[in-house]
Amino acid sequence: YLLNSEEKLGLEAKLADIITVERVQEEEEILWETLLPALDGAIEKFVQMRQKEGNALAEDILKKRKHIQYLVGLIKERSPLVVEQYQQKMQSRLNELLETVEIDQQRIVQEVAIFADRSCIDEEVIRLESHLVQLQEILSHGGQVGRKLDFLVQEMNREANTIASKANDMEITRNTIELKSEIEKIREQVQNIE
Q1: Coil vs helix vs strand at 18
Q2: pLDDT level of residue 7 (50, 70, 90 thresholds)
């Protein structure tokens, strides 16, 4: 005689007090003894993979840092020449325009000083150099450095933007654009670091 599904449910309900299901503590312990080594191994491999990836990212960031340092050096070297060239251009234009009129040299010196003050990028260069040292230090200490690096890269980008806005020279502008590109690459890498 076959029971339909309603009859099976009714029978099971009647026998519920007769049949009890118990979990044996020993079965759980055996399960954990089997499972725990596999979990430990997986976690260890995961940590090793993250460390390897972190080391590769740090190495890549340090290469980019070195290139940024080179570009900052070029900008720093070029900066004083911009003021000299401005003074020479100004003197030359005035001489052409006012061939017969005497030029007040003091006024030219004042104009050049104003230009030099507005286009001075010494502070930004010094801060960028300091940020590059900090970048090296943060990466060498290890640990959770993602937030520190993120903040530092924002500061580096801010300095590069200021240099770009003050630059009155194509060569400095060109180097600053490349500098910003390298900083952006570091920023993208930092997004993958804890």
Answers
A1: coil
A2: low
